[in-house]
Amino acid sequence: MVDPAPNQPGPLRTLIVDDEPLAVER
Prior knowledge:
This protein is mainly α. The protein has helices at about 10-15, 20-25. The longest helix has 8 residues, at about 10-15. The radius of gyration is 8 Å and the shape is flat. It starts with 9 loop residues before the first helix and ends with a helix.
């Protein structure tokens, strides 16, 4: 999966890749 937000830190990027964008926004 390509990084949707390369500017985001590692942990947040991992959450996004895990298909849990809501977890990042909360």
